[in-house]
Specification:
By secondary structure, the protein is an all-alpha fold. It contains four helices and no strands. About 15% of the residues have low confidence.
Length: about 90
C-alpha cells in the first residue's frame, strides 16, 4: 500500500510540475533541481511557491548565478595572478 501511495504522490507531483511549466526547457543543474523540488514538494507549488535556483546554464545573463558568485572571484584572482607571473620577464 505504501508504494502505491508513493507512486500516486509522484504522479500528482509530475502533473502539478507540468501545469506550472517546470517541465519546459531544462538548461542546467538548477533547472533539474527546480523540477525535482516541484515534483517532491508539489503541495507548496499549489500554494504559489516558485522554485527558482540558478546554478549555471540557462536563464538571464544578468542574473547572478550561485556558481558565478562562488567561483567568480577566485577565478578572477587566479587569472590576474597568472597574468602577472607570465608578464614578468
Amino acid at each position: 500500500m505504501r508504494s502505491i501511495g508513493g507512486i500516486i504522490y509522484l504522479v500528482i507531483g509530475i502533473i502539478v510540475a507540468a501545469s506550472k511549466h517546470y517541465l519546459g526547457t531544462i538548461d542546467g543543474v538548477g533547472d533539474i533541481i527546480n523540477l525535482l523540488l516541484a515534483i517532491l514538494l508539489w503541495p507548496l507549488v499549489l500554494f504559489g511557491v516558485k522554485f527558482n535556483l540558478h546554478l549555471g546554464g540557462g536563464g538571464d545573463k544578468n542574473d547572478k548565478a550561485l556558481g558565478s558568485l562562488l567561483f567568480g572571484p577566485p577565478l578572477v584572482y587566479g587569472r590576474a595572478a597568472l597574468t602577472s607571473v607570465l608578464n614578468r620577464k
